[in-house]
Design brief:
- Two copies of one chain form a homodimer.
- Helices cover 41% and strands 17% of the residues of chain A.
- With 339 residues, the first copy, chain A, is α/β, with parallel strands linked by helices.
- Chain A folds into three domains: 4-42, no CATH class; 58-158 and 299-323, Response regulator (Rossmann fold, 3-Layer(aba) Sandwich), CATH 3.40.50; 164-296, Rossmann fold, CATH 3.40.50.2300.
- A six-stranded parallel beta sheet of chain A has the order 2-1-3-4-5-11, with helices on both faces.
- In chain A, strand 3 (118-122), helix 7 (130-134) and strand 4 (140-143) form a beta-alpha-beta unit.
- The radius of gyration of chain A is 25 Å and the shape is elongated.
- The interface between A and B is large, with 44 and 44 residues.
- Chain A binds a DNA duplex (16 and 16 nucleotides) through residues 3-5, 13-20, 22-23, 27-29, 32, 47-48, 50-57.
Chain lengths: 339, 339
DNA sequence: GTGAAAGCGCTAACAA
DNA sequence: TTGTTAGCGCTTTCAC
């Protein structure tokens, strides 16, 4: 395997010259540059990143910690992040952790052992404290969420997210506009300090604004984000509350499980129960009826995350926060209530 | 950030001694071992993998090239692979490529630039040649498939797979046993030199054994593995061949898209069309009706892949090939044909 | 514009 | 059992 030494010998120049050429440093004559470049090609030179990293005292790796990777919502985002990293000359180091685990301590370990230059956290908690985040040891970016419940200084990290509360408000509002008032909400936990809690607030606010009192029997917590739990919780809901006519799910995957539960209970969507969710995963285009959902721009989310973080790492920009909008993807799961 | 040098100074020993302790080499006295170990802890020492890799002329990374990562079938496998790598002290380097691209040349590049120690290919072609594989430069493992159409020496690589042909045979046979004879098959391409072609053969054989002539109008190729293409091809099938009564899909995701097409065409599963597939993704538990499928042991597949490859890399065993069995996961998409 | 040389943190002979 | 030392491939001063 060819090294810059080989190239240097081949061209009768010093290794430092080769290094300069390979790194696009200015002070090299066009002649030597060409010579070196073609030699590199001839010798099938591939840079040794360990050596480069060691000399640099850093890697060109960005860590990606995904919390709850079972959720198909993350798949296209991960893809976009990997691709964008590659485009920018970084490499991505992926680590998936179960939904319940702590992404911050996991991230901190990774940054140390792999000398990561930056970190993207996908699907984490919204309540980081300055103290815990200080252990991270590298610039980080919250992807698909932000620090709503925490006390972080906005200039100390970046984020790409949707406005969970506003979007949830919109979802609930759409159901209300269809005449529904017995609207259940399906979520992880109303105290998860994360996505569920934020979206739950939007739901509550929409109900309040419409003069509909909050009905705790319609708040369906599942404790985790699994489809299994969502299915079982929906079954229970239908048993306990035959008066329910609509359901807002904080995630597409959970909505799909709910649809199955409804069907297994002998009811139909949207005749008996209307459903709306937030996410926009591919699979929800293929349910019957098609799931009505507020689709997040998944690929864009991943791209933006990398773009912003890389700019921070390269010193080209400081931390920033991007809010993306969802798009209503009308399906067939919402019906007008005919009393 | 502490280095072994710091530890050496702290303990008044040589760096090589520290290195020995940290790498569990035998010839160290218990005293120095303890001294070094506690110093490492006190100094919050974290090994610098770039330096280690450079000295070793290798990384402890296993590359994972996933072809067609949109397929939800791969998600649990990737998770299992990552976890198993970690358990064995390796780190995983993930690279996702589109379904049509060449995993071998991609893998070769990766091995070079990242000095990967081994490679797992997930969802690749079945027809590697000795020549192309020789460019890989590292031991590799085919996960979820094997080299059925190629000319590779069985001792030169490993694989973990199901018997595609036999499982497809079984799927088709199950439909035949229910009285079906107009059985369509939904696949990528019958000449893809990969999963579709293998499973297609099993389908053909089952029909032949049952005395049912092959009907080319029932062979639905989609050119790619996307749900979109599967949906459209199924729509066309239903238009062209109203006599079809059953469908065998080579993948769960495509089957789910087909179910949507059938429903959109005003038909019902299984009353009008029976469906069976191979894969066993989580989502197919939540279709209505539940998809009947031959479920692959996804997590086990990933674990086995790592286990075998790591044994090869560590010199503990030579290459091997594991065949896993699917499990029939009965759903509600298969019905008996009442003529 | 180019070369010589030191050093990044770690491993692995070879000596002692 | 331990220490000395020469690299691994690359980057980066500092001379020339």
């Amino acid at each position: 395997m060819a090294t810059i030494k080989d190239i240097a010998a081949y061209c009768n120049v010093a290794v430092s010259t080769v290094s300069r050429v390979l790194n696009n440093h200015p002070d090299v004559s066009a002649d030597t540059r060409d010579k070196v470049l073609s030699a590199a090609r001839n010798l099938h030179y591939v840079p040794n990143s360990s050596a480069r990293d060691l000399a640099h005292q850093q890697t060109d790796s960005i860590g990606l910690v995904v919390r709850g990777a079972e959720n198909p919502f993350f798949t296209p985002i991960i893809r976009a992040i990997e691709r964008s990293c590659e485009d920018k000359g970084y490499s991505m180091s992926l680590h998936q952790i179960p939904a319940g685990e702590d992404e911050v301590s996991e991230g901190a370990k990774l940054v140390q052992s792999k000398r990561l230059k930056g970190l993207i956290l996908l699907g984490g908690r919204y309540d980081y404290t300055r103290e815990e985040v200080s252990t991270l040891g590298a610039p980080f970016m919250c992807c698909s969420y932000t620090n709503h419940f925490g006390n972080l200084d906005r200039t100390s990290f970046s984020s790409v997210s949707i406005n969970d509360k506003a979007e949830a408000y919109r979802a609930a509002e759409l159901l209300i506009e269809c005449g529904h008032s017995k609207i259940a909400v399906l979520l992880d936990s109303i105290h998860d300090r994360s996505i569920s809690e934020r979206r739950y607030r939007g739901y509550c606010e929409a109900l309040a604004d419409a003069g509909i009192p909050l009905d705790e029997g319609l708040v369906c917590e599942t404790v985790d984000f699994s489809m299994k739990a969502a299915y079982e919780r929906t079954i229970r809901l239908l048993e306990e509350r035959p008066d329910v006519t609509a359901l807002f799910s904080v995630a597409d995957s959970m909505a799909i499980a709910a649809m199955k539960a409804i069907s297994d209970a002998g009811l139909s969507v949207p005749q008996d129960i209307s459903i709306i969710a937030i996410d926009g995963i591919e699979m929800s285009l293929y349910t019957t009826p098609t799931l009505t959902t507020l689709a997040q721009p998944q690929a864009l989310m991943g791209e933006k995350a990398v773009e912003i973080l890389v700019d921070v790492l390269d010193g080209k920009a400081s931390h920033s926060h991007v809010r993306l909008e969802t798009t209503l993807r009308p399906g067939g799961t919402m019906g007008r209530l005919h009393p």
